[in-house]
Write a structure and sequence with these properties.
Largest sheet: none
Number of strands: 0
Structural class: mainly alpha
Radius of gyration: 17 Å
Helix content: over 70%
Strand content: under 5%
């Protein structure tokens, strides 16, 4: 159940706002505004991708911790 839940959370992260504070548009605008002066958009897109990658890794690591704890709890019950 936990891996499926994590996939849904990461999908929601990509599709909607992150904690209703940082959304896709905010990250993309923050990454691309400095690029408008120099017309070097590749760096801006890479910065935005890196942000989402880091956020995804953090969510994945939290999920692994939850999965370990639930697995050890279930083993103790059985």
């Amino acid at each position: 159940m936990v891996p499926g839940l994590l996939n849904n959370i990461i999908g929601i992260l990509k599709a909607t706002n992150l904690v209703s504070a940082i959304g896709v548009t905010e990250i993309m605008v923050a990454a691309l505004v400095p690029c408008q002066d120099t017309y070097s958009y590749l760096e801006g897109y890479l910065a935005a991708a890196l942000m989402y990658w880091i956020i995804g890794i953090v969510i994945e690591n939290i999920g692994h911790v939850i999965e370990k704890k639930t697995t050890s709890y279930i083993k103790r019950l059985v």
